[in-house]
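Exam review. A common question shows you a sequence with its structure tokens and asks you to describe the fold in words. Practice with the pair below. Do the first one on your own.
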Amino acid sequence: MTHAKLSGSLLACKEAPATPPPPRQGVAAPSVALVPAAGEDARLLADRLKALKLPAFLREYDALARQCAAEGLAHWRYLSRLAEIELNERHARRVERLIRKARFPAVKSLDDFDFAAIPSLDRRLVQELAQCEYLARRENIVAVGGIGTGKTHLAIGLGLAACRKGHSVGFTTAAALVHELIEARAGRRVMRLERRLDACGLLIIDDFGYAPLSGAGTELLFEVVSRRSERGSTIITSDLPIKEWVGVFGSERLTGALLDRLSWRLHIIEMNGESYRLEHGNRRPPPFSTVADLPRRTMRLAADRGAP
């Protein structure tokens, strides 16, 4: 009896499939053959990927499975590659949506900007701003210079760089923004417009001072810039030197208040001459006594901080 039981146990051991030992620590697991889905399985997989809104998975999984199988890659590497493709496509689609939403008059990259045409322009500063770190600090940019010096191109290029970093951007001219604000006020839609502007991490106001503004328009524009001082960054381009902005607002007091809001954290780029950077620390400077005092104080503070 004992002999029979022993023989049966030995026979069962011979017939049982061998269980492979677990892989040793530090040794990669063997790759698994990736067999493409077919028939009903393929249809079910496609339906589920559509439901999960994974279009890149749906389009690439079959070809990538064959490629990874041919390379002998493990299943997790296949999945990692597939996830990377999906993430890259999602980012690309988001950037496209942000660019459309920004309403740029044209898509112009800083790569196409002719720095050689303005030798005095600080290219290093522009490239630093293109990294978009100033947006996290809610810093502002003012670009001033004559007509045709590339201010709009520069502003669009910085806005495009912000979109590619995933930031929401809005582009408008000063005249168009004032017109929209006046219409919104007449239709009691000011709060809705303000919420839309507040949602922009970067608001670009082009051609400030190019067209005259009404008294009501300048006050509404001031409110927009004032609200943004703690909500997001603003880029303003103008053909007029800063000291002449008082002619646009018609009030030295209102102009000084606007410049005070902007200069809390400000980069000033003069497209006709030397570019320089004004950085304020945590201490907020007192309001400017006059508009004409801004350029002198800007240069003095920049010199004190060793700015170019």
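Now try the second one, then compare your answer with the model answer below.
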Amino acid sequence: AQLGTRLPAAAGWAHSTLLTATERAIAEVFGSVTARALIARGLSGQELGLDAILEALDQSSSRVRMSAQLLNTTFEHMHQAVSVVDSDLNLAAWNRRYEQLFTWPPGMLAQGQPIAALIRHTASEYGLSESQIDARVAKRLLQLQAATPYRSQRTLPDGRTLEVRGSCFGVRVPRTTATAPAVAVALPVSGLQQLCVLCVDDHDDVLQALSELLERWGARVYAARSCAQAQAYMQNETVNLALIDYSLGAGEPNGLELIAQLRQAKPNLVAALLTAETNPSVPQWAAEANVSLIKKPIRPAALRAFLESSRA
């Protein structure tokens, strides 16, 4: 539709799910506050002309600029090196001390840069193997998403000692629905309270971070470090879904083999393989086994989408 053109009247009121999806799509461009205002204006019967769209964009841009300036001003007066990520785990802000902490490739420190790239870059300077780097990136991403405090002390390649006290937090504000005289919109409640998830990984830190993330989403988690422990959970607990690492350590079957064993007890078990494997055959093997594939480092949004789709 063209801006400024009134759409034909619909046969009835839009379903709340459609309104929620529309609000989210607008929020990705203008922000949540502006999105709610535009939806409210549409529900009240007001025409969404070009002037309303431009006004919303201008207000949204002003808020973003003000927030960014406030963050940068605050951080520049701190003695510690600070970086901030957004809800999508992309770099949102940092201070000069953070720039000086490591040797960054040109252009890497930029708003919107996935924080996984920065973690991978710093980890690569310690001479770690690719699998060790993948594990460190996956662990840190899950800690960030789960808002798990992080503390470590290590010696940098140039001999400096770095002490990290990472504080992770999230900010939630109450949602408000705009007043519309002829419609009441009930937003759907999102949650995974009825989901029982079996997680299998041979790295304790990754397993803990994944479990904490799932529990924050409302799922019940059975965390297993070995195949034997996973088998025991399947025998004694009600498991709806399994998230299993591909490489489970020496002497253990791989993730696909374990899923096949678990399906002997529960043939319809929904399962996803978590892997950083570069072997091009792994995706094909997973597809043939009717197993979803989630690449490491795990993107929380992709994991959440998989869990939500499994409930349908």
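Model answer, second protein: Residues 1-11, 176-190 have pLDDT under 50 and may be disordered. The beta strands are 83-85, 91-94, 150-155, 161-166, 196-200, 220-224, 241-245, 270-275, 292-295. Full marks require stating both points clearly.
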